[in-house]
Write a structure and sequence with these properties.
Blueprint: E1 5-9, H1 16-29, E2 36-40, H2 46-52, E3 57-60, H3 77-82, E4 87-90, H4 93-98, H5 103-116, E5 119-124, H6 128-132, H7 136-147, H8 153-156, E6 160-163, H9 177-194, H10 197-202, E7 205-208, H11 216-220, E8 227-230, H12 237-248
Parallel strand pairs: 1-2, 1-8, 2-3, 3-4, 4-5, 5-6, 6-7, 7-8
Bound molecules: 2-phosphoglycolic acid.
C-alpha cells in the first residue's frame, strides 16, 4: 500500500506570526487521518511549524545541494535537518521559472536530500505551450528521469513525486481526473522501467494545480494519484481540512 500524502505548499505567504495562527487553526480543523499531512511553510516559519505542527510532516520549499559554503542567501539540508525538517520541495515550477532551477540542479538537490535523510518531493510539470505541442508525456518522463539520475532503487523508495501541470498552478484550471491520471500512470510506468515494479508501486505520486475541496475527491480516487500538493487552498484551514477529509473517504 502506498502512502497517501496531502501537502500544503504555502509559497511566499505567512509571516512567522501568521504561520503560527494558521497552524493553530489547522490543528483544530484537521480530521484524524491515517494519511500523511504535510505543510511547506516559508523558511522563517519552519521552526515554529516543527514545534507546533503536531502530527504534521513539515518541509521546506527549497534547499541548496551543498552542505555549507560560499552560497549567499541559500539554506542547506543539514541546517534544515537540525531544526527537525523531514521533507523538502525540489524543482517546483516557480523555482524553475523564476529562479533558474534546472533538471541538473533538481537532480543534485534530490540526491543531497536523500543523503541527508530528508524526503525530496520532486516536482515536475509541463507548460501550456508544451501540452499543446503534444509530446508532453515524453517530456515529463524525461524530467522525472533527469531528477532521478544516479538515484538507486533503494533510495528511490524514499522519494515523493509531484506532477504539477504549470498551466493548472494558481489558475483555477485543474487537470481533469483522467488527464492527471494519464500522466501519473505514465510516471508509474517510467519508474517501473527505471527501477522495477515493486519500487514504482511504493513511490507516492501527487497531483498539484488548483486542487480544492470540490475537485479533490475525484482526483484522489484515481488509481495512480496518491495525494495532492496544494497551494492556494492550503492557506485556509477549512479548505485544506476538507481536502484531507475528501482523501479519507
Ligand atoms: P495551487 O498551487 O494549488 O495554488 O494551484 C499548487 C502548487 O504550486 O504547488
Amino acid at each position: 500500500m502506498r502512502k497517501i500524502i496531502l501537502a500544503g505548499n504555502w509559497k511566499m505567504n505567512k509571516t512567522p506570526a501568521e504561520a503560527e495562527a494558521l497552524l493553530k487553526e489547522l490543528r483544530a480543523a484537521l480530521p484524524q487521518t491515517a494519511h500523511t499531512v504535510a505543510v511547506f511553510p516559508p523558511y522563517l516559519a519552519l521552526e515554529r511549524a516543527v514545534q507546533q505542527g503536531e502530527g504534521l510532516l513539515v518541509g521546506a520549499q527549497n534547499c541548496h545541494y551543498e552542505a555549507s559554503g560560499a552560497f549567499t542567501g541559500e539554506v542547506s539540508l543539514p541546517m534544515l535537518g537540525e531544526i527537525g525538517i523531514r521533507a523538502v520541495l525540489i524543482g517546483h515550477s516557480e523555482r524553475r521559472q523564476y529562479f533558474g532551477e534546472t533538471d541538473e540542479t533538481v537532480n543534485k538537490k534530490t540526491k543531497a536530500a536523500l543523503a541527508a535523510g530528508i524526503t525530496p518531493f520532486v516536482c515536475i510539470g509541463e507548460t501550456l505551450a508544451e501540452r499543446q505541442a503534444g509530446g508532453y508525456l515524453a517530456l515529463l518522463a524525461d524530467q522525472l528521469k533527469a531528477a532521478l539520475e544516479g538515484v538507486s532503487a533503494e533510495q528511490a523508495r524514499a522519494v515523493v513525486v509531484a506532477y504539477e501541470p504549470v498551466w493548472a498552478i494558481g489558475t483555477g484550471v485543474t487537470a481533469g481526473p483522467a488527464e492527471a491520471e494519464e500522466v501519473c500512470a505514465m510516471l508509474r510506468r517510467t519508474l517501473a522501467d527505471l527501477y522495477d515494479r515493486d519500487t514504482a508501486e511504493v513511490i507516492p505520486l501527487l497531483y498539484g494545480g488548483s486542487m480544492n475541496a470540490k475537485n479533490a475527491a475525484e482526483l484522489l480516487s484515481m488509481p495512480d494519484i496518491d495525494g495532492g500538493l496544494i497551494g492556494g487552498a492550503s492557506l485556509k484551514a477549512a479548505d485544506f481540512s476538507e481536502i484531507v477529509k475528501a482523501a479519507s473517504r
